[in-house]
Amino acid sequence: MKTYRPQFVRPMVTGEEDFVYSFSQFNVPALAGNITLQPGQTLNDVVLQLQADAPFILRGVLITTYHPFGFQLRTSEGKLMDDVALDLHLTYQGSNALSPYYSMGSTPVVVEPELPCQSGGLLLLDVTNLYTVALQVASINILLMGVKRFGGDYARAR
Amino acid sequence: MQGLVERHQDYVFPIDQSLTLPAAMAAPEVFNFQLDPDAPFELRSLAARVPYDANGTQYGLQHVLMSYSDEQNNFTSDFPIPLFCQMAYFGQAGNPIPRYPGLRYSASGVMRIQIQNVGPNPLTGLQLFFRGVKVFKPGEITSYTYPQKVRRPPLSYVYSLARPNSSIQGLAVTDSRLNQIWQSDPDCDFVVRGGQAGIPSRALLVNILTAYEVFFTFRDESGKPYSNAPVHADVMFGRGSVAFQPGSLPVYPCGPAPTQIAPIGPGPSLPGLFYPEIYVPRNHHLIYDVYRNDSAYVGAQTTDYYPVTLIGMKVWPA
Q: Is the pLDDT of residue B215 over 90?
């Protein structure tokens, strides 16, 4: 007789699992603490490397920093997701006015429609200094929220 | 409303900032507001605002009571209700308070509005924003929508409204830019679903709200507007806070003292949505007018950088 049942019944057919990629100075060399951008300068093609075990379906983006950087994302197929490097407070800032420096934990910016990224693929990020003085990029944190979509034998095994 | 065409519409009452309400009104003043004759209107959400004062706040708005009626003169409440009880943050930050089910008015219908200022000071410049849809018969207006087939998957995308400079440049203290053209990339259609606007971060912000009274009118390519009057950027779009400038969001007065409260919720993660979305085919135009009138503010300056984004989706027709 089954004596234990989990509180949440996982759908058996989707093969999807929530997953969040976190990128910052600690795992992206291009965002290291000693890198400084002059006013108006752009750091192109910062690689946000995805893992190779499953395709990633991007459904939300959340970027935090306490400097006025502009951001422009590019998909793994090379398509831009933003017109230009736009101010964070108009594009990828989470919703939390009480702590404007860090909106971690707040609502991400929804990516609609979702963006499928191949396993082992990457997203590219351009960072522009929109301020009037030089800034270090080390304050930047990027969260990519979505699901890993497992398939085939791997999905059934799980 | 199956089989009919819904088109985004903002009704602004009054159309300018000339309304002055005396202090401590003993009874509400009643206004008749006639809607456009071209189509019926379904009211789905509301917002309200007054011009920012010298401190960048909307002092006095917390003292305003309001109610409105359908065209049979049935009011939505037995007595005017404080605006702050009807709508969080007065429906601003791009998030007008929803009304469901919608309230329907015939073409040229008349809405009655009761307004009462119970505060200790006169109040000038109150505007109410009634957002909803105009309803047309199929074929009555040009209405674009998705193609039967698309060439590749649609893509979430953020456009800058003012291209190619990524912002509206050199907006003078008193300025109006009429019939500005926006166009998507020539290879794709674009679906406008929301937007954000305001606060330059490129310049050092001595004054947090560097442009107070900025209004927009959007039009389709034939010049037919989506509102009866210019709509303030805070109602049309909203914005997040500037990260390096705490308190850079607009704050809203609450209580008689009042306490100024920062909104929680709006910003680029939860922008106000244009409903129905506005579909702009490739090589077609979206026209917009921009107005700024900050002549009442001491020290107001020309903004070198007023960013506006259109949030939506790219579609590549097959």
A: yes
- A91: closest CA among B195, B185, B212, B247? B195
On the question of pLDDT at A89 being above 90, the answer is no
CATH 3.40.50 correct for B5-136: no
Left if phi > 0, otherwise alpha if psi is -120 to 50, otherwise beta: which for B166? left
Structural contact between residues A158 and A10, judged by C-beta atoms closer than 8 angstroms: no
Q: Where are the domains of chain B?
A: 5-136, 150-317
CATH number 2.60.120 given to B150-317: yes
Q: What is the per-residue burial (b if ≥16 Cβ within 10 Å, else e) of A21-59?
A: bebbbeebebbeeebebeeeeebeebebebeeebbbbbb
Nearest to B307 among A64, A87, A108 (CB): A87
Candidates B199, B280, B163, B214; CA nearest to B52 is: B214
**B240: which chain A residues are within 8 Å (Cβ-Cβ)?**
88-90, 93, 95, 97, 100
Q: What pLDDT shows up at residue B206?
A: 47
Residues of A in contact with B210 (CB under 8 A): none
State the ipTM, two decimals: 0.84
Nearest one of A147, A139, A1, A3 to A71, comparing CA atoms:
A139
